[in-house]
Amino acid sequence: MASTRRALVIGTGTGGLASAAFLAKDGFDVLALDAGAEIGGYLAPFSQDGFVFDQGLHYVGACRPGQLVHELFQSLGVDAGELFRELDPDGFDLYRFPDLDVQVCRPLAAYRERLTALFPEETKGLRHFFGLLDGAARMHDALARGILGRPVLTDLVALTGVPALLQWSQRPLRELIEQSTSDERLRAVLAGQSGAWALPPSRVVGLAALLYMAHFSDGAFFPRGGGGGLRDALVHAAEAKGAQFRTRALVERIETERGRVTGVVLAGGERIEADIVVSAVDPTITLGRLVSASDLPTSLRRKAAVIEPSMATFQIWLGMRRDLRTYGLGAQNVWLYPSYDVEEGFSARFTGKLPPRPMLFLSPTSIKDPSGALAPEGSSSLVVLTYVPHARFRKWQSLPEAERGPAYAAYRDEIAQWMLKELDARYPGLVGDVVVQAYGTPLTAADQTRATAGAPFGPAMTLSQWGPKGFRTRTPVTGLYLAGSGVFGGGVAPCLLSGLAASFMAKLAPK
């Protein structure tokens, strides 16, 4: 492997940072480019008045020794045991419905027992659902060991459940839930993590949802220092192997010659030559704008043009001079559903209208990382999130933030008050002693990360877009590879894997 081979990485979110680190580890001369002023994409935090806020990271699974995320970081020379802190093992997720609270615990067997105690008449259906979920967990672990080159004989056991699981690669999660129980409340509980993949149960691929849930089958973790801590660990790992980074470097075009990548051209005309280019931005941008149409099959161009993005978010970042643990929050995520109709919380995505009451997600980041890095002593940082239709903000998207005017500010404030009213109804008195109150709309996400339609999870994991119908690491252009949430899905682990896959493919590329 010649160390003189130049690799360029476009975008420095989790997938781009992982690509840079693995490519540098494999001996490439790496330069990672980001169009923004700061490295990290959704991992890049912002700070105000001593409070530090995450834009997109809430928890990570498979962080124990021998598990996927732990081993990926270890392979890069990062002490994963030091980086990650476990969330509450008895309830890393709390689902709060109108008259029912359910804490998601580890391991899967304990969570199944908890639900069986709550719903004793649904034992058979829970056995069916958790049988598939347990099979997905075994498949997840077997795939992880295979990817890491450490398969074991017992992985063959996971293969016995493949036929039963594979049918759910063609069927939505809602069908599995309805097949398992007719109890309205239990159906809502089994769909409680839907916000994590930003789709209602009727739209998300069943197997994709099962694998996501399985990723947290042995608990959930949060990085010390939040998203910024995770970003810094990846940056340091890449730089330790010689990788370099440039900000304010907007790639305008990926150049090719005879079907092979030759470099990129930046806004302003600067050309940077390369043997390998890994694009870790949305595939619709890479394949729809950066690569010449003549270099791609018509079918792939059409696919990139019609991809449905994941749902956009509206976030409220709160910094408060109070300890939220005294108000009932802990080292966990909280999902607040206004009813047992989980579908309703996502209806805005498809109707363009907001529901009467929002589904809310709470992330008390300063409790998840009690080191003091995210909030001053005696204070707390809190992220409050809901999903909104990007279409409601489209008329302002072409304008710079400073020029969006009072109508945009008024609509932004209206949604924030709608969310805070619901939060106060569910957690009376939680918000107070406020020092920082900032908002992030779908346009904020697009401004800061250039996410298509402000979507934080890349292409939606629907039946027509996930798995074999999704995008691949390899492209028809020799030397051009994809990484990021558009390859294996959103979240830390899929994006880390996308970087590993891009590096692996780059090593195999003809010189």
TrEMBL record:
<keyword id="KW-1133">Transmembrane helix</keyword>
<feature type="transmembrane region" description="Helical">
    <location>
        <begin position="480"/>
        <end position="506"/>
    </location>
</feature>
<keyword id="KW-0274">FAD</keyword>
<keyword id="KW-0732">Signal</keyword>
<keyword id="KW-0472">Membrane</keyword>
<dbReference type="InterPro" id="IPR052206">
    <property type="entry name" value="Retinol_saturase"/>
</dbReference>
<dbReference type="InterPro" id="IPR002937">
    <property type="entry name" value="Amino_oxidase"/>
</dbReference>
<dbReference type="InterPro" id="IPR036188">
    <property type="entry name" value="FAD/NAD-bd_sf"/>
</dbReference>
<keyword id="KW-0812">Transmembrane</keyword>
<feature type="domain" description="Amine oxidase">
    <location>
        <begin position="16"/>
        <end position="502"/>
    </location>
</feature>
<keyword id="KW-0521">NADP</keyword>
<dbReference type="Pfam" id="PF01593">
    <property type="entry name" value="Amino_oxidase"/>
</dbReference>
<keyword id="KW-0285">Flavoprotein</keyword>
<keyword id="KW-0520">NAD</keyword>
<protein>
    <submittedName>
        <fullName>NAD(P)/FAD-dependent oxidoreductase</fullName>
    </submittedName>
</protein>
